[in-house]
Amino acid sequence: MNSANAYHKPPTPDPYADDDDDELDLNELDPVATSRRAPVSHDYGLPLRPLRYGGRRRPREADTEDLGALIDGGDEARRDPGYGEEHEGLLPTANGSARRLSLDPGDSRARRKGISRFLPFTTTTPTSIALPSPTSDSDATTSRIVHVAAPKQTAPHTKYPPNTISNAKYTPWSFLPRTLWNEFKFFFNLYFLLVALSQIVPALRIGYLSTYVAPLAFVVSVTVGKEAVDDLGRRRRDRLANGEGYRVLRLVEGEDEVGGVTGGNKRKVGKTEARKRGKRRRVEGEGGGRVAEAEREEEMVEGLEMPSTRVTEVVKASKDLKVGDVIVLGKDERLPADVVILKSFSTEQITPAAMIETAEVESDTTLVETNDSPSSAPVNETTSDDPSAGGEAFIRTDQLDGETDWKLRLASPLVQNLPASEYGRLRVTAGKPDSKVNEFAGTIELLPKPRIHGQPYDPPIVKPSTRTSSHQAPLDPPSQEPKSSPLNIDNTAWANTVLASPTTVHALILYTGPQTRSALSTSASRSKTGLLEHEINSLTKILCALTATLSLVLVLLETFASPPTTSPTSDASGKGQKWFVAFTRFLILFSTIVPISLRVNLDMGKSVYAFLIQRDTGIPGTVVRTSTIPEDLGRVEFLLTDKTGTLTRNEMVMRRVHVGSVGYGGAEGMEEVGGIVGQVFGGGEGGRGGEGLWTPGQVGFGSGGAGQGTTRTRREIGARLRDLVVALAVCHNVTPTIEDAEGRQSTAYQASSPDEVAIVQWTEAVGLRLAHRDRKSISLQSTRDGRVVIKVEILHVFPFTSDSKRMGIVVRFLRHIPDDRKRAVEGDDEEGEIVFFQKGADTVMASIVAANDWLDEETGNMAREGLRTLVIGRKALSTTQYVAFSSAYTAAALTLSNRDAGMARVVKQHLETNLDLLGVTGVEDKLQPNVKSSLELLRNAGIKIWMLTGDKVETARCIAISSKLVPRNQPIHTITNLSTPSTALSALEPLHANPANTALLIDGSSLATYLTHHPRAFILTALTLPCLIASRCSPSQKAALATLIRAHSPSSHGARIAAIGDGGNDVSMICAADIGLGIEGKEGRQASLAADFSLTQFSHVTKLLLWHGRNSYTRSAKLALFVMHRGLIISVCQTVFSVASGYEPLALYRDWLLVGYATVYTMFPVFSLVLDRDVDEGVARLYPELYRELRLGRALGYGGFGVWVAVSVWQGVVVQGGSEFLVPGYLRGPSGGSTGNTGEVSAVAFRRMVMVSYTALILNEVLMVCSEITTWHPIMICSVLGTLGLYFGSFPFLGGYFDLAYLLELGFWWRVAAVTAASWGPVVVGKVIRRRVRPPSARKVRGV
């Protein structure tokens, strides 16, 4: 008894000392009915103390005592914290009920004021979560203390960002400012804005205001609308991803869901389900909620833990997940946020019905109540039966860092055996959000179990009959210090990784939304502008300068030509005003030189290109997410590609094995290997049919006559092949699992490397199956009869690392199965042989295995085929050798300085010397369909392909060779582990000797050195190479390379860069490139959602670039030139008319004539050029060299633009000058203020001249379109005929501009024909001559 309880009166004898508590008299428990003073409970005044402490009690784990729930009409009586196991002193209240005498100055009842002191059930119950102090986690950007969210914890962790994915470019409030800025930052849009605003000034107005404002508003509306549609599509796809449901554990305090007031004074006593011993009674009624309080106090006093909370499963959308939530993950589920793994257990050995039962649905949310009491907690089992193998899970990180190896993750040992009901006691301390995916440091703490209602802890009374079971550890007292355990990268899993193993994982969310590792490694989306836009912007500046120059010349000519006496004003100010107004009016008249319809036509053309791409059956599933840059598909110079999931399928297959003198490959070779293995382990005739297990000490090939009738050479080859298969079946880190697929069970393998899985699958295919593996042993079965033929004890494992490039294992072969181990004790079975197996890269294994004359040759042959080679060696160890190694290795593991180096040195000294070379294996990473031909086609098109992957150096090299990314005869210069800036430049010198025929292979650490210290020197060298391969490349490095290429490219606006990937680690690269290509595959859609074009496989890139890219660029270039030609020719006509009118700024074509010329009368034939093609698709693929010419930009270069300007000047002068010359009676200055007969004749002649000029202008433009079409389309024919019909059909409505009577005269028609022939004929003749003299490449390959 402690000092706090020493002064109390000893307890009176318990009248309920009888061992049987099955039948209880409720009157004995009623404080009104009983005459003896009984102590009351701590919360609701239940006098249960004598019942709990009197006499001999049964063990708590064996029996649950009967409890009664009583109704007390008076005030609550609360337990004094100073009281212990004995009776409490009670003071009678006014109504006769018992009330305690409080000795606690901090008693909550004493502090409460007013009527609340008399209300029942108003006791403040502290939550089971220790809330963080106000200053403990005040800054979310430095460090954070994360508590598991509790139901009474108000707004947990609300300061952290929501867990949402957003690929949208705009926000609702930034959409208009950003889109308008993107529009008017181009000169020609700004120019038209100024022209439209000038029409507000009456002195500058020419025609209707809508003539200039409406086209600009239409252009801006179309472009802004397209951006809105694209961004809404991104938001819609984001909404689908953010709405994905995840199971979340919700912690609910016990009293919240136990019992409650049902009304009345009735009591109902019922029996509960019998457990191990005894029975339990429960009273449901008005005081039903008190049962939980009585149970909780008794369990604390008994020293047995009561669950802190009840656990329910809530299905929440990904966007609703918060920091502190505990999510439940299963196999193949994607992690929605950065988490710490709390618990991992196998789903194979847990009955779901024992864990989860359906509960009531609350607020349209699926709830699943988990019966997570200590007696029914999930069994801690993983993929093996070995109790030491707890809390393991494998994750796939290829969507995060590009690595194909599965990563082993471990639950914290502090939490692995903790029931989920106690998660509320956990507190995790972690650092600030970081982009480093391979680093993490934190701490997890298990807080003491909270005391009920703030009472101090009373030590439990250990009764003679109470015993701690052997399987249950004694519980720590609640007053103990918090337990803590460190956390590292092995205890975490980042967002966008996938749980690969068939386990159920409980994980605590640490970072959400933009603070996750993947989000911090991803560049923000940016608005992309095509190269064609920049080129047109440059040409527009030239046209604007031409307009200003022409206007100034006309004003000066007017000034010099007009006599001084005719000046409207004689003062200088008057002349200055007239000069300015005339200049501005000329600028407005010539504004058609910079055609506003250019943007309308180009934007509509982009929509047509996007429609044609998505409707192409040759590239099914392709989606255009950004429709503003299709022309850039025809200008790509660099293609940055990921490896895993993009070039490869990440599916490994064993292709070849070689045992020195014989190699096996193909179906026939593997069948022969299976026959040899079957003779040794298959059982039956010629196999191992007897008892016992196979060990290396059994000499000879097979047993039971398996080698009879074979030559010595064949027996040696068979024995060597047998040893190789055994080594491959033992030396790995693969664990077999049982999976249910459509009601059928199958064996699956999980490992950190797909190479190892492929090898183990191959050993199963040839007859030796991995049946069981845990941390202590490995069992192998024969596939013929299912018998265990090999069982080894694992002594040491040396895992593969990127530095060592090898993996080893020390095992002891057992002679008999464990059930028959008695033989070994009896002496007929000695300890099995101890063998060290090792496999690794040929570069490191060559110096470890014994001398041979074939290893280098065979590994070279396999490498040239693109196979991933592994060299396998073996060394038998005697007991003395193993004891010596084990002692030295243990001593090295205990050192504090240079531990890893010391352990590696011991392994090298004792094990890695003179290993027997067993053989070489070649594993192929399956490529995506048609990858080899696609890469070759793109390379012939002049596109430089850089492979940026997060995988290992050796893997990147093999894929580069197998995919023909690097031709066989092309040397690969390798730079790895370069960390010294002083030697970085010298490492690049070998590339300068032959840059056109050398590829560069560089790892991530070396690349970081160059990007930090010598970015310019590195990128200028890399730009000259045909190929670059970067391994261990982080997402930020991928984006940095794309930015450097564009910044240092010799092109005027930077080389066009396309980036293609399929994972979340490729999003930064996709966003940084000019063209983002995302592959939507089985590994997720994040790259596809962030990309500009979504594909289903890599081979579709060739058609997208070589065909659709070519068409989009050539069509847009031709369309832009025609639209500018259309504006130039009408401006030249206006210039000729102004000169003929005495340099007056008078309009030749007004209002509808000006608008109709740029729209309904010429738009459809000109716009139909978006359907033209200069070559067929087969020719474009047959001659990929045609793509090289597109990158030069000649289709819209300054040379071609100058030719079109000259053509426009010629045709404008001929059309307007010829019309004025040929129309009879036309007087100069017809719109002057003259009156009388002369003025009337001049007005008629003016209308006739305009009629001839305008008609010839329309016909000239239509004929120019016809002469430029290469391949006619039915829509083109309809547009030409329809436009001509529309124009001539609209004559009756043009009486305000034309002299309609002149239409019936023959003179009108021959004058129109003469002017049109004079303007169009010489241009066509010149075009034919130029095509004969210097035909373009497209005409050469077409043979026309």
Automatic annotation (TrEMBL):
GO terms for molecular function: ATP binding; ATP hydrolysis activity; ATPase-coupled intramembrane lipid transporter activity; magnesium ion binding. It holds the Pfam family Cation_ATPase. The keyword Metal-binding applies. The chain crosses the membrane at residues 186-206, 1152-1171, 1192-1213, 1245-1263, 1275-1296, 1308-1329. Residues 147-207 form the P-type ATPase N-terminal domain. Residues 1089-1335 form the P-type ATPase C-terminal domain. Mg(2+) binds at D642, T644, D1062, D1066. It comes from the Eukaryota. Keywords: ATP-binding, Lipid transport, Magnesium, Membrane, Metal-binding, Nucleotide-binding, Translocase, Transmembrane, Transmembrane helix, Transport. It catalyses: a 1,2-diacyl-sn-glycero-3-phosphoethanolamine(out) + ATP + H2O = a 1,2-diacyl-sn-glycero-3-phosphoethanolamine(in) + ADP + phosphate + H(+); ATP + H2O + phospholipidSide 1 = ADP + phosphate + phospholipidSide 2. Residues 44-53 have a biased composition (Low complexity). The keyword Nucleotidyltransferase does not apply. It is a multi-pass membrane protein. GO terms for cellular component: endosome membrane; plasma membrane; trans-Golgi network. SUPFAM superfamilies: Calcium ATPase, transduction domain A (SSF81653), Calcium ATPase, transmembrane domain M (SSF81665), HAD-like (SSF56784), Metal cation-transporting ATPase, ATP-binding domain N (SSF81660). Residues 364-386 have a biased composition (Polar residues). It is found in: Endosome membrane; Membrane. Its EC number is 7.6.2.1. Residues 1-91, 262-294, 362-393, 448-488 are annotated as: Disordered. The active site is at D642 (4-aspartylphosphate intermediate). Residues 75-89 have a biased composition (Basic and acidic residues). Belongs to the cation transport ATPase (P-type) (TC 3.A.3) family. Type IV subfamily. This is Phospholipid-transporting ATPase. The lineage of its organism: Eukaryota, Fungi, Dikarya, Ascomycota, Pezizomycotina.
